[in-house]
Amino acid sequence: MTTVAVLVETRSGEVTQPTFEALTLARSLGTPVAVWLGEAPEAPEVARLGLYGAAEVRVVAVGDEARLPAVAAAALGAATSDAEVMLMVSTFVNKEIATRLALATGAGVVVDAAGAELVDGRVETMQTVFAATWNVRTRIEADRAIVGIRPNTTQAIAGEAPGAATLVEVAADLRQARETVVVVEPVSAPEGVPLAEAPVVVSGGRGTGGDYTLVRELADVLGGAVGASRDATDEGWISHEHMVGQTGTTVTPALYVACGISGAVHHRGGMQASGTIVAVNIDPDAPIFEIADFGVVGDLGDVLPQAIARIRERRAG
């Protein structure tokens, strides 16, 4: 049976939802094992990993140096020498880790995949490319495969017969990196689900005029995250971490609401793979309507308050 390793992502000591999505996908490829970089996890987190199919939780005890991609890649290499497939959430840092691990092991690597399956004993991935204008299947011909999976592309489902995951400590001979972590200062993160992981994203663009009150309110009632176009972040209306686009965050939520965004190629490339796209724009010829599943031609100052009120009425009833 194929051994499929999954790199565990955590936030405040708890396993993130995209990790469970990766474990769900891993079960379709073989026998999942989870790899935890850092101090040994608490029992409840080990149990949750087992619930989603992890037969083992392999712990590599690395400290702050795990923040260095070279060290993280070496630790992963030590913990996954028997794994034919390695899955990880497709983040900026993990893409570098995947590349370094591939160079060290001779594995084939694909990032930003929307899914993967075994075909004739080889891993094939599915992804969108060229600003989400093409759907591509890629076969990894190497004996080992490393795949970065986008959040929200696989539904996290617990195993039908979940077992207790075994905790295994892995000793890793980590080579000296060219960099050294001097100090780690925690930065207060915004409340809610991170933009890349959110199942619902409400984004505002130039049409907001810099006022994100309604965009934030709609995101709140939908339980989603707030996004923005490059124009909005360039104007300084909202911080860069909210930017959705080719040079910002790529999102694949179940629902994407674009408010006052024209739909330039840069922005579309970061959200076009979303499940359902709703656009609100005063310009009936805005390019965003070409890819929207539902479009509303109107001023967001008129449309959003009505939408917010109806959603609240529906939920109250």
Please give a quick description of this structure.
With 317 residues, the protein is of the alpha/beta class. 27% of the residues lie in helices and 27% in strands. It folds into two domains: 3-170, HUPs (Rossmann fold); 195-316, 3-Layer(aba) Sandwich (Rossmann fold), CATH 3.40.50.1220.
Description:
The protein is of the alpha/beta class and 317 residues long. The chain has two domains: 3-170, Rossmann fold, CATH 3.40.50; 195-316, 3-Layer(aba) Sandwich (Rossmann fold). Helices cover 27% and strands 27% of the residues. The chain is built from eight helices and 17 strands. The strands form four sheets. It has a seven-stranded parallel beta sheet with strand order 7-11-6-1-4-5-12, with helices on both faces. It has a five-stranded parallel beta sheet with strand order 14-13-15-16-17. Strands 8-9-10 form a three-stranded antiparallel beta sheet. Helix 3 (69-79) crosses helix 4. The protein is elongated. The mean pLDDT is 91.
